[in-house]
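#lab-general

N.A. 3:47 PM
ok so I finally got the sequence cleaned up, no stray characters, all 349 residues accounted for. can someone with queue access submit it? mine expired

B.Y. 3:52 PM
send it over

N.A. 3:53 PM
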Amino acid sequence: MPDAREIPGLQALWAKTLGDSQICVAILDGLVDQAHPCFQGANLTRLPSLVQGEASADGKMSIHGTHVASVIFGQHGSQVQGIAPLCRGLIIPVFPDAGRRPSQLDIARAIEQAVHAGAHIINISGGQLTDYGEADGILEKAVLTYAEMSERIVTAVRSGLDVCAVYYGHPGVFVTSAHNAIRIARAEGFEAQMLPGISAEDCLFADLGIDPGNYGCQSYEATKFLLYRLLFDPRSTLVLWQVGAIGMVDYDRTYFDQNKGIDLLVETLLESYPADHQAIIYEATQNALFSPRIEPVAIGKLAESVLTLATTLVIPPDPKSSIPDMERAKQLGLEEHIDKIKELQQREF
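B.Y. 4:20 PM
back already:
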């Protein structure tokens, strides 16, 4: 590849800007060797993906991923001067050095992950032939859906209107288009602000009487919880959103098998909890005239429950499993208060 410095107009662009940390560029490629000297000082974050491990010096896709990332984020003063070294970068490995190649579903999920993480620009150096020469619908919709929702909001702003977009619940929780619209508007010089609303999690704390200050709270979307094998601590409350939609990629339920997702979820949870550990099936009410759905269920019997797109699974910790570290208690001067602290915690459940 020719030296990036020879690209017409690039020197003039660099004279004005080397990029901005408010602009986020996602790289969907092979593993990236972030220890390479050209990335020293670069603002790069690797997100968890199906491709695990570290970049290999002789891995074909590792070499490709590192090369592509260096073209954009290579720091000036190093042996590789990138096009936008001061932009923020997201590294999402999707192409392994060996083994299974990603499907269009894998790519669609990676795109959604990049959007949720704040990417303004997504670079994908790859392609895939299909039987009909067209993108799978799940991939096409992942690219278009969020962009269309955000664009409709920003178009009204560009026309000179004062725009207020109202979403159900909190506009920043599970609402990618709201975040995108604000980022686009601000990047174009418009004033944009997100105001908080009451989210389903706020309702959950109130309806179930859970104080996250007691045991802490871990909150994950159920499909991503399984897909990325996200780590969690069973001594803390675990909240899994959309457990009735594990593996669903579109509302027409294409490629969706609820039983398969629930079976995998139960299998995963039983690695950390006994089968009779009591969880809670929760659905916040959308109308003040009705009551929320609150049903206790043993983890081992979760598959026997009716689960919907709105179902959240809440797994309280076993209070007996939270044993304070007495050495830490001594260091904090809490030895005389430890029994009181344990008593307050156990009251919650």
